[in-house]
Amino acid sequence: MANHMPSQGAFTFYPCTTQLTLYFWWSYTQMIEDNSHPRLWRLQADASLKKLDLETAESSFVRCNNYPGIQLIKRLLTIQNDNLKMAEISAFFGDFDNAEKLYIDADRRDLAIKLRTTLCDWFRTVQLYRMGPGISDQQMEQVWTEIF
């Protein structure tokens, strides 16, 4: 009868995933270095991003060869407002509703509109345009053209 148990390498990911999110993840850096794997570095990068530890996140993204993550770090370093940084991080992880909420809370409706335009979410773009002043007829016409 064949042994259907996963190899020991498969067990490395689960404990690290839960430990990175539940405990202080920086104590696991040595374990990740000893068992170097791109997925482990990505987990550390994700955990450090959520804590706004950009230095560790950049180092981890470099080690797992994640170029979009490195670009995100460079963009985050130019942003001063922590709410805007968290919005960018939420968008990076695909949580677009939270990113939009953070943009609006930071009084940056223009960035929320840009996000929804990039996602081609035209109906939500119209709703965001109607939330406040400062929209031209040309912008609204462009959005309606995209819808129809």
How would you describe the overall organization of this protein?
With 148 residues, this protein is mainly alpha-helical. The chain folds into 2 domains: 52 residues, no CATH class; 68 residues. The chain is 72% helix and 0% strand. It contains 10 helices and no strands. Helix 8 runs antiparallel to helix 9. The mean pLDDT is 82.
| Beta-strand segment tally | 0
**How many domains, in number, for the residues?**
2
Question: How many whole angstroms does the radius of gyration measure?
Answer: 20 Å
Structural class: mainly alpha
Report the average pLDDT across residues.
82
**Strand percentage:** under 5%
Which stretches are poorly predicted, pLDDT < 50 over at least 5 residues? Answer: none
Defining key terms:
148 residues, mainly alpha, 2 domains, 10 helices
Helices, strands, pairings?
Blueprint: H1 8-22, H2 29-34, H3 38-50, H4 54-63, H5 67-77, H6 82-92, H7 96-105, H8 109-118, H9 122-130, H10 137-147
Quick recap:
It contains ten helices and no strands. The protein has 148 residues and is mainly alpha-helical.
